[in-house]
């Protein structure tokens, strides 16, 4: 049985419009399916878990953005059962879709998932009892994610199909507010100390924040987390590194360092906000580990 989880507000209402567009195609294909709409925080996760446990669903197709992907994959993980995953991208950033080459045309995307055209397994990142598919970040990027979420300009920019720009505006607004802290990270047992850290991001895919190539070398099925740390940089240096992130050329910036690991802990003197796939999930300290080949997805 196939279950659809539709986030009607993803991409500023794109989720609802896209569902209305693909529903006839789904019915036309003769698929037997159930469909549920999300209602807010934690809803995608709860719906996914319920569909699997109570309705015998073994393939869930999310219609939404990265937050919806995050919720559904957590619901699957919490169910402890095997359930395949597909996505019809309908968010503002759509980083998961971009990284996995999922079709941007919703009808093509849903047909590919229903016909099981291409299946692959991807790693997930476990953190403090949750999983993430894209990235987990602490510090400035989590603060930017919160600001973007709460921003009125996000909805406005989405209307003009400029959702990715919302993140850039938030970066500029949060720059002066952010208070840096010293950070201690352990990567597979190696202790790394950083002064005045701006951010630490562990990535499973290269891009986040609507197309920024934070860890250009990340591969979703290699069993490794690629970690990017920006520390000891002035606001000007951070901005210069930030401008390069879109091209992935920040990797040569002297205040940016990279690591690769499977088991990671992050502690900060001052608690840092933490995001998983762009959704705020708590504060430091955090403990992470890779779950290799954890999830089957259709692309
Ligand atoms: N019915 C609803 N009303 C209000 N908020 C909702 C509803 N359903 C889900 N949400 C919220 O939507 C957020 C997830 O949105 P999602 O990330 O899928 O889209 P997006 O933010 O437009 O895209 P992206 O993350 O790709 O930039 C979650 O934080 C969730 O709480």
From TrEMBL:
Keyword rRNA-binding belongs to the record: no
Record key words, sorted: ATP-binding, Kinase, Lipid biosynthesis, Lipid metabolism, Nucleotide-binding, Phospholipid biosynthesis, Phospholipid metabolism, Transferase
GO BP terms, alphabetized: phospholipid biosynthetic process
DAGKc domain ranges (all copies): 1-131
Superkingdom of source: Bacteria
Molecular function as annotated in GO: ATP binding; kinase activity
SMART domains for this protein: DAGKc
Entry-linked SUPFAM superfamilies: NAD kinase/diacylglycerol kinase-like
Pfam family, one: YegS_C
Cofactor(s) the protein needs: Mg(2+)
NCBIfam families: YegS/Rv2252/BmrU family lipid kinase
Family recorded in the similarity comment: Belongs to the diacylglycerol/lipid kinase family.
Listed name of the protein: Diacylglycerol kinase
């Amino acid at each position: 049985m196939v279950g659809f989880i539709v986030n009607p507000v993803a991409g500023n209402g794109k989720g609802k419009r896209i569902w209305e567009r693909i529903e006839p195609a789904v019915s036309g294909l003769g698929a037997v399916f159930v469909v549920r709409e999300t209602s807010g925080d934690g809803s995608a996760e709860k719906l996914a878990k319920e569909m699997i446990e109570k309705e015998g669903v073994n393939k869930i197709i999310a219609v939404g953005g990265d937050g919806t992907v995050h919720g559904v994959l957590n619901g699957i993980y919490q169910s402890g059962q095997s359930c395949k995953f597909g996505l019809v991208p309908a968010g503002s950033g759509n980083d998961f879709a971009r990284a996995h080459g999922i079709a941007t045309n919703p009808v093509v995307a849903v047909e590919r998932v229903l016909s099981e055209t291409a299946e692959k397994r991807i790693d997930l990142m476990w953190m403090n009892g949750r999983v993430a598919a894209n990235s987990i970040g602490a510090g400035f990027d989590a603060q930017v994610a919160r600001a973007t979420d709460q921003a009125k300009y996000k909805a406005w920019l989405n209307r003009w199909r400029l959702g990715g720009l919302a993140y850039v505006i938030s970066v500029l607004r949060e720059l002066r507010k952010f208070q840096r802290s010293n950070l201690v990270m352990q990567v597979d047992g190696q202790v790394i100390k950083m002064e005045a850290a701006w951010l630490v991001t562990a990535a499973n895919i290269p891009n986040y924040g609507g197309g920024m190539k934070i860890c250009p070398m990340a591969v979703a099925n290699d069993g490794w987390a690629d970690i990017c740390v920006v520390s000891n940089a002035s606001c000007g240096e951070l901005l210069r590194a930030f401008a390069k992130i879109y091209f992935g050329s920040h990797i040569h910036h002297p205040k940016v360092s990279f690591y690769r690991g499977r088991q990671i802990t992050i502690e900060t003197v001052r608690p840092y906000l933490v995001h998983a796939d762009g959704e705020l999930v708590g504060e430091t300290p955090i403990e992470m580990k890779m779950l290799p080949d954890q999830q089957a997805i259709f692309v």
